[in-house]
UniProtKB/TrEMBL annotation:
GO terms for biological process: DNA alkylation repair; methylation. It comes from Paraburkholderia tuberum. Residues 166-176 have a biased composition (Basic and acidic residues). HAMAP family: OGT (MF_00772). This enzyme catalyzes only one turnover and therefore is not strictly catalytic. According to one definition, an enzyme is a biocatalyst that acts repeatedly and over many reaction cycles. GO terms for molecular function: methylated-DNA-[protein]-cysteine S-methyltransferase activity. Residues 197-207 have a biased composition (Polar residues). This is Methylated-DNA--protein-cysteine methyltransferase. Residues 5-75 form the Methylguanine DNA methyltransferase ribonuclease-like domain. Its EC number is 2.1.1.63. Belongs to the MGMT family. Residues 166-207 are annotated as: Disordered. Keywords: Cytoplasm, DNA damage, DNA repair, Methyltransferase, Transferase.
Amino acid sequence: MTYAYKLIDSPVGQLKLVAKGECLAAILWEHDKPDRVRLGEMSEANELAVLVETARQLHEYFAGTRQAFDLPLDFHGTEFQKQVWRALLTIPFGQTRSYSEIAQQIGNVNAVRAVGAANGRNPISIVAPCHRVIGASGELTGFAGGLANKMLLLSLEAGQTSLEAAADHAQRRAPERGAAQAVKDDAPAKPAHRQPSRGTQGSLFGS
């Protein structure tokens, strides 16, 4: 099946929304590495319902009026990767988890580095919040969208009054150092102080 895509502008750069059938299959960054998420042939489909709805919910998220996404998702990867990506969907808005906490959650405490690798291959950025996974010491570590964007998303979720304030905070706290940085620690990180969102996350996992 051919993938369909829609490009949207956002505060974290241009995003490429990708659908397979009636499900969201990927959200790719403007400067994403071509081989990070492997997808098939694509055709532009700006009016496809799932892509239009994804764009609407992302706009609400960036505006600070949405804390949870409600979209049909179609993840394609190995069974281990899908376990990690499912775990990402359980991290509440405004909170973070360490790589070791994700490894414990999926029942494989020795797979910390493998969790980091799967996290880096997460195809549905933002909606499956890989930006909420940080190093055990609180270090941001690597991020496909860039560390400045990771800090911006975390700052936005931490209760900044505006996206402009979050962006300014990100510039002061996390200058861009590139997306590739090794996972250094595996001790549990302290969760953020925000209470979990009560929103739900719809998902459909493909093979």
